[in-house]
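Private note to self, pasted from the team thread so I don't lose it. Backbone tokens:
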């Protein structure tokens, strides 16, 4: 989901961090205390270490893999999101990629399934036995030209995390069901001296968290095939619906409903404000459940609802998408051992699969696995029953269009004279430039 604008400094730092973590190799007898015949597999993923308890990828996965396969040692590194995409593309180009690494569905990132499979970097995973247990949509989103190249973490939803105590304190008795009601709730909070919403816009990908939810209710509710028509030239970002979504988002900043100076707040700072009870809401996704439900300075019950960008009397649409996941380097020197690990991990009867489901913040895309997080029950049931949803918009755009959205809307947040029409025009210009390639 998170689109990266990494600089030279970040690239240099990440390359230094990653040195020596390229393609795997068998260790020599007696080295690292592992004994003869040990195979070391490497894995690099994005994100932050779990705030509370064990991190599945860093702690649980390597331990359980080694217990199951004593001859396999799995080394895992987790990089901050603002470094990962640049780092993995550099490693792939240099032929030093890890055996397993993070990828995004469709075209949703610089490390996307479509871009990396076209470049020949990804192994074909179509015939792995557990693939038939993954939902058709999730499997398709991790495919290209009829071949499956990735395994998703699950299904992710964008939404609004909220502080139930602050809502009750100011007399908001029910979750807003439309845009007018949402604006009224924000005003009620503001009038009571409560910051309605906090965002970490210093990390520019956060701008997408609200924009895509509003676009779901203006762009894709009116035409679910908007992006296909964008690609064919029938539609443009400058059409009324995208301008409307951007204008609605601007309204939240103009009215002071989103905390001031968010361009100076990174994601961790915004999250801390929310869990400390200093803001009533934050726009984010299911993947950030561990950090947004961590213990802060205030003790309160969390809730979660889709940002209702719909008009009164119209249904709310949600931004729901196949999540990022894992792919295998096409030139891994230990493909057999990699597949052993994957077949164990994603076998629905295995102890490792059960542990993964328990710790995975994303909603499972495996058939028959029930929702294990009550926080998302309302939104998930609405998604299942209504079908009023769309993928995260950047998954159908060439990499770079979302960057333009972030940069230009950042100018709006920063108080420059940039208008929603200017943002839409810049997005269209970047799309035209990249799509021709």
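Design output:
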């Amino acid at each position: 989901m998170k689109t990266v604008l990494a600089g030279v400094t970040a690239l240099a730092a990440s390359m230094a961090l990653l040195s020596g973590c390229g393609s795997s190799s068998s260790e020599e007898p007696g080295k690292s205390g592992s004994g003869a015949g040990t195979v070391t597999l490497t894995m690099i993923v994005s994100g932050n270490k779990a705030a509370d308890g064990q991190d599945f990828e860093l702690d649980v996965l390597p331990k359980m893999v080694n217990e199951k396969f004593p001859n396999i040692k799995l080394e895992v590194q987790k990089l901050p999101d603002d470094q990962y995409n640049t780092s993995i593309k550099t490693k792939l180009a240099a032929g030093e990629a890890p055996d397993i690494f993070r990828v995004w569905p469709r075209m949703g990132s610089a490390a996307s399934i479509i871009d990396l499979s076209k470049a020949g970097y990804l192994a074909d995973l179509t015939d792995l036995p557990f693939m038939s247990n993954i939902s058709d949509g999730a499997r398709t989103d991790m495919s290209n030209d009829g071949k499956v190249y990735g395994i998703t973490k699950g299904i992710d939803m964008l939404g609004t995390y909220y502080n139930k105590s602050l809502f009750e304190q100011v007399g908001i008795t029910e979750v807003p069901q439309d845009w007018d009601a949402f604006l009224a709730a924000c005003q009620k909070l503001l009038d009571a001296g409560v910051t309605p919403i906090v965002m970490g816009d210093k990390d520019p990908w956060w701008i997408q968290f609200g924009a895509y939810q509003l676009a779901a209710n203006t762009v894709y509710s009116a035409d679910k095939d908007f992006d296909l028509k964008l690609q064919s030239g029938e539609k443009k970002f400058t059409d009324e619906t995208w301008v409307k979504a951007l204008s609605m988002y601007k309204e939240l900043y103009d009215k002071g409903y989103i905390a001031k100076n968010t361009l100076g707040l990174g994601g961790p700072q915004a999250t801390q404000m929310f869990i400390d009870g200093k803001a009533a809401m934050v726009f984010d996704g299911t993947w950030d459940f561990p950090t947004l439900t961590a213990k802060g300075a205030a003790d309160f019950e969390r809730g979660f609802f889709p940002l209702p960008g719909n008009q009164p009397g119209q249904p709310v649409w949600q931004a729901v998408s196949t999540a990022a996941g894992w792919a295998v380097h096409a030139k891994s020197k230990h493909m057999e051992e990699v597949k052993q690990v994957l077949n164990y991990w994603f076998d629905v009867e295995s102890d490792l699969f059960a542990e993964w489901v328990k710790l995975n913040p994303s909603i499972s895309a495996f058939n028959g696995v029930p929702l294990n997080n009550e926080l998302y029950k309302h939104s998930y049931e609405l998604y299942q029953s209504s079908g009023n949803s769309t993928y995260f918009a950047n998954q159908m755009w060439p990499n770079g269009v979302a960057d333009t959205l972030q940069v230009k809307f950042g100018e709006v947040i920063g108080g420059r004279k940039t208008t929603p029409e200017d943002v839409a025009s810049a997005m269209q210009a970047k799309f035209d430039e990249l799509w021709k390639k």
